[in-house]
Amino acid sequence: MSTTDAIAMLKADHRAVKELFEQFEKAETKREKAKLATQAMTELKIHTQIEEELFYPAVRKALNKAIGKAEATSLMDEADEEHHVAKLLIAELGTMKASDDHWEAKFTVLSENVLHHVKEEEGEMFPQARKLDIDYDALGAEMAARKEELKAEGVPTFAEQTLIAESGIADSPAEMTRMH
Ligand SMILES: [Fe+2]
C-alpha cells in the first residue's frame, strides 16, 4: 500500500484523532483540554470535508454499481448523517468557551459520536470500498493536496455553523445550556 492510498490516509487520520480524544480524557486542566479539543476539531473539520468532497462521492458512485443503489444509499447516507451530527456539535462547541456549562460533556459526546462513525467506516464502508474499482492512489493524492489547501486556507463555513449562528443561541451560551 502506498503512502497516498486514500483508505490508509483516512485510517491514519482516525488514529490521530483517537489519540487526541484519549489525551483529552487524561488531561487534568481545562486549558489543556481546550487546546486538545481545538486540535481535534480542526482535524475533524478537514477530515470530514475531504471525505465529503472527494472520498464519499467516488465510493458512493462505484458502490451503486457494485452492490445496488438501495444498499449503497443506506450505507453512505448513514455516514453523511453521522457527519452532520458531528458538525452540529462542532458548530455549537465553536461558539462556546471551555469554562461554559456543558462544554466538556458536549465534547465527550462529539468524541463518542466520532468513535462510532470510525467503527462503522472501518468495519463496513472501507472493506466494501476496498473491493471497488477505484484508483485509491490517485484519489489519495488528490485528497492529500486538498488537505494541504484546507490546512493553509481554513475549512469553508459549513451549513451547520450557519444554522447554529442563525438560531441565535450562539450569542448566548446560557440559552444553549438551558436547552438541555
Ligand atoms: Fe467520516
UniProtKB/TrEMBL annotation:
InterPro entries in the record: Hemerythrin-like
Gene3D superfamilies per UniProt: nmb1532 protein domain like
Residues covered by the Hemerythrin-like domain: 6-129
CDD domains the record matches: Hr-like (cd12108)
Name the record gives this protein: Hemerythrin HHE cation binding domain-containing protein
Native organism: Asticcacaulis taihuensis
